[in-house]
Design a protein that fits this description.
The structure is a homotetramer. Chain A is built from 9 helices and 13 strands. Chain A is an alpha+beta fold. Chain A is globular and about 65 Å long. Chains A, B, C, D: InterPro entries: CTDL_fold, DinB-like, EgtB, Sulfatase_Mod_Factor_Kinase, SUMF_dom, SUMF_sf.
Chain lengths: 417, 417, 417, 417
């Protein structure tokens, strides 16, 4: 998951205090159903404890805003940076990633107190115009960790054989929509971040890409379609798979998407009946690619996806990025639609996560940096039901390794025309 | 760690209710300084969460006493046996050992409530004479888990780089006592459990063993002596080590006992100055054996140790097994003496953990069973500062793999004479 | 390493017999200095025994030409396909890759006999025009395995602490050439295979790509420059490295290119003094990328490299692909130049190995297939000193994982202008 | 496998030259059917290449006899000790064990030449009385490696899916003999090496052991009986197994002894029909112990086995240790009997491989030493069809880890009476 670089001086001063309060409040609201123990456990190296997300985002404010810009500010606890720094090498030593699950102390309420302390101290900085880009970055950073908090805790609760849950709500039935194809005539498309708004460094520089004619599916692949893939021997047919994917399937005895069990799937609201019309989620790139082969189509490139998302004229399409099921309050994230580009699940592209032309990471720790993850991963476009509302933009580049599937990942097919 | 088999009908009926209350109460008192999160984390596959120990011991009472002998008793939660059974194959499927650290639910207070519920139900069974052996077994079982709870939580808290603790008390200074040798003329010694009292199945049958003349050190090896071993290149000298031990040292870059850091060691009361006169603890069999080679001596056999512990006439020796620092209330376990056979730390013997002549495991789940661990491990004798008072007897056989060292393990030397 | 698909009916009939004889002969000439035992050992899963390469290439002719097109041809040994098939899933079960080093039987001379038998049988097919594309493919396939044979046996002999060699020749001193930059104004470049000549399926379809202005270094990075990188702490500076690369460096204690030792490097002619003016080889993508960061530049994309290789007008550049040090007879491969695009070493690009627009793998086993390796790998351009002469073309796409370095891999820098 | 220490000055001077020639000759005769490549491959870390055994035994003569005692002797190749030393730490650095399979050079004939050179030089030493014990040790050492050469090459050839063999002979049909029990009344038995003859250091000192009454089966468990164990679900019944054994069975999907396939087993003569009346071989301690539990009996201790082998009066029993099928010339080792204590297969005891009372390893490299393997292994008694004739004695202690099974290991049951 990327970290942000401000692209321009944003004139967002006026509503920053309100937005700061909203974002910080949402983080805590998401963790509200969790006990201290829930918030402490770590289910795998890829994931972090909920408590750690609440602390790490706070560390960000304390380190890059308060320590550097609030005169006389003293660290709340000088030992905490060691445990709540994530991967900023220039910010010094840090705890091994797989030891995060050993942090029973500080407690969840210690962290919540720290949050209040930092929020109070931040009050004095929210009006300083020169800090607005950095604050903007802090907000985006915290919103990213909100999504990770949700996907990580889902994975942790899933380990519990007692079938626990953190919310009671269950999903509405999805509407089945017929598949259709958005055609694109090809030609030169303008790609990457192009406005004065906020974006991560890896979304730029904006540049032109030459496209061949293609079409993108109007909706996501559904659970029901995935059932057909399974019934047709999808997981047993070597020739459908990338070589590494086939190795992964065999070694891990993969037979279905993550979180599937009989006709149920595990959600933040516990085990629920699986809706055949809802978009399939929690699949790996390997599975997405094999499914596309099986279906006789392919995955789109990140450029094709973005071109459709922008519309023929470079405008955003009819799809309303605000209209999805994205995270806007503390309710369980559940994909329900499938027709929207944003808001159900992240969509794998066949594009490697690599630098755009003339990309240069910014100097210093804040700019450390999306660039260093640019090997071995694939770009995902869109936004999921666990993505903060307001994080949807055509230029956004999410990225994961081809075997990872604990995020809300799904498939939108493409084809040559 | 062994599980128990009643050897005879014990006439302990009178004080069983009081002893039941004391043992059950001590388990909870030990866990009292722990938060739900502290009690949830699992630091390695060898260890279990504190919460799990509290639950597993309760599962034992519910399964083997209440379910089988209390008419009409209904399981508190029918899903819990799956997660709180440990290794009783005949009691059905159970959670993978390394997943115990994912049990944020049930919470610590859920478990405490379960304990109360079970204790109340047990009231009706404590007076039934025919159940006394099984109850005796349950008490010993729970006392063993008290020791494991303490060594496991110590290991878990040790992982936290913030240096946390669960108690505030620190150790009194140890008295340095000069080394002396208890000689034994050799001959036929009677080994194994020989009284009407309680014992685990692996302590019997009693039998005779032929000994050569030998001497056993009057005290344990100290931290200060271990410092000399290190200073003399003990960890760098291949010829001092067993072949597997040398491989272990090299692969894991072992340079000192577990929990050592500069001149400190980690304890339940956090990082403390290391007392050179206190017995060394938390060493592996490999280290114990290498130290003995370096010192020009050897480790005793379990038979030699037991012969000395029984005295020349088969009596218990001057060493008072009740006089050590053993666990009798909820205070931090810290070895302080060194002259006692019981109460400071478990003492490695060079005897493999193997069956005594005519040993047969008992039938059924309760008897599952010390016998199945009889490969690859070594016998330890004595008792540690974390052992329940009353668990000290000459015939007790503790056992661990030669690389393990998270228990309170130490060294008492022997030599041929 | 790719497998080939004929793109068009080639009119190569006339000289096919001569070329067949030359290619087949070269394979055996390369293996001539090897004993049966040399040809049997396998040093890692990535590599194969020399004997296996000689057999696998023969299997290809027997399976796809003789079995399918030579009437009445009977397999030389019906059990051999199981052991000498490589990864063609549609051709049935095959031996686990890491067990190839257990094939002490058949012997090297058994394989050589089989080769003669197959060559004799092939005589009857070399004149059949409709088979020319398939024969062309077989030749390219065998030439690729010639390069692998050389890099694999180098790795195997390197394991021997006695410092063995397979040839006696040592390298001529390289000529130091000053660095210069080939500029490119950007714009639309035509990429991919564009002629009637042979190409692998992954080199097409030809298509257009939009480039930004850039410059490509006129020569390869040298051993001497790499020494400076090391002296400047290159392997100790986290911020120079991709995140995965830094993990790889730390885990494997990487301090220098593969095959370096003091001021020597291991070659097919044994340990030799390292020439500071010769191109650095046997480095991973991670190292190439870190070096480029340290040098203040970057790696080129595969498209930039190809655009320069084709020249401004789509022509081949002054660099003569035939003029390098490439493999043309059985002499030890040693990079010596550095100014040529082809013939010293493969050059890492920052382009992921991914399908070109409208790429579709061909049906059937022969087309199994470059496509299935399209995840997690990077494209390399050029050709090395171990590449068969005649395999140099601007569209060629070699590919390896970012940690692999037993091929003759090197670095040519690029920069934005 | 142990290394030897001479116990006394042997008066074997007269026939030493003849015995030296016979032993050295047998080593080469055993390797005669092997190609250089056969002799080079290494199938697992536990095993060594045949070539390595031929070289390592020669290294022993050159190092401990010629270098130390033949004036003016110069090492044949001063780099070879590094690669042909096995585990003698005091003799300096040595090649990693798992890299032995990379030694395609020196070739098999290089080694054979070295052997001749050393044999010629040894001529001058064979008559020196003071060297007799060391020469005796060298002979025993070489004989042990003859057995390992045979079991290691069997394992290596087994990896080849083409079903190769090194000899053509197949086994005679075994005679089915009824099971009977040798009873022993218990009491004090004298254990360990007690004569002037040669023995390894771990066979002493001789000492007394107290035994309970027991009985030992008159014959080995057969393939047919093992078939019944399998048919009765032996490999699926957790309660029959040691805990570590059950983990090993599950992790490795063990379903039968090593080398079994349908109703065949792999031998030095390739795949052969399995004789139900022949002793079962190639089973692990875990399997032996589970089988004994299933049969309602147990494994003997090493002391029980030895007491029976010595007979009631301390004499050797009717079983003729020279009468078995042991290795005496270069024929394929195949167990055929089952009634003999020596000569069919090694018999697992339930005794840990631990030091006898007053055991002290001898000083120096030659005495490096059986003692350092005294953790985690079990003692095996008897001798197998691959053991050199003359290596059979009641005090011999072979030892392996409980999961290992590439030796000719079998089961002789015991019971309490």
């Amino acid at each position: 998951m990327p970290h942000a670089q401000p692209r321009s001086v944003l004139t967002l001063g006026e509503d920053l205090p309100a937005r700061y309060a909203a974002v910080r409040g949402l983080s805590q609201a998401l963790a509200a159903p969790l006990s201290d123990a829930d918030a402490t456990i770590q289910s795998m190296e890829d994931a972090s404890p909920a408590k750690w997300h609440l602390a790490h985002t706070t560390w960000f404010w304390e380190t890059f805003l308060l320590r550097d810009h609030a005169e006389g500010y003293a660290l709340y606890d000088e030992n905490w940076p060691f445990v709540f720094n994530s991967y900023y090498e220039t910010e010094g030593e840090r705890i091994a990633r797989f030891s995060r699950g050993m942090l029973s102390r500080p407690t969840l309420s210690d962290i919540v107190e720290w949050r209040s302390h930092v929020d109070a101290a931040m009050d004095g900085l929210l009006g300083r115009e020169e800090l607005a880009p950095l604050i903007e970055l802090g907000l985006s950073h915290e919103q990213q960790h909100q999504e990770l908090l949700l996907t990580d805790i889902k994975h942790a609760l899933f380990q519990n054989p007692l079938g626990v849950k953190m919310w009671d709500v269950s999903a509405a039935k999805a509407h089945s929509s017929p598949n259709d194809w958005h055609s694109h005539p090809g030609g030169i498309a303008r790609i990457g971040h192009q406005t004065d708004g906020f974006a991560f460094d890896n979304e730029g520089p904006a540049h032109r890409v030459l496209l061949e004619p293609f079409a993108l599916s109007s909706r996501l692949v559904t659970n029901g379609e995935w059932d057909e893939f399974i019934a047709d021997g999808g997981y047993d047919t070597a020739t459908l798979w990338l070589s590494d994917g086939w190795g992964w399937v065999r070694k891990n005895a993969i037979r279905a998407p993550l979180y599937w069990r009989d006709d149920e799937q595990f959600t933040h609201a516990g085990w629920q009946a699986r809706d055949p019309d809802a978009p399939v989620t929690h699949i790996s790139y390997f599975e997405a690619d094999a499914f596309a082969s099986w279906a006789g189509h392919r995955l789109p490139t990140e450029f094709e996806w973005e071109a459709i998302a922008r519309g023929q004229e470079g405008e955003l399409p009819a799809h309303d990025p605000q209209g999805g099921n994205q995270l806007d309050d503390a309710t369980p994230p559940l994909p329900r639609g499938g027709a929207e580009l944003f808001g159900d699940c992240w969509q794998f592209t066949r594009s490697g996560y690599l630098p755009y032309p003339r990309f240069r990471p910014v100097e210093g720790a804040v700019g450390e940096y999306n660039g260093k993850f640019m090997s071995g991963q694939f770009v995902l476009k869109g936004a999921s039901c666990a993505t903060a509302r307001g994080h949807s933009r055509a230029s956004y580049r999410n990225f994961f390794y081809p075997h990872q599937r604990w995020q809300f990942t799904g498939v939108r097919l493409a084809k040559d025309i």
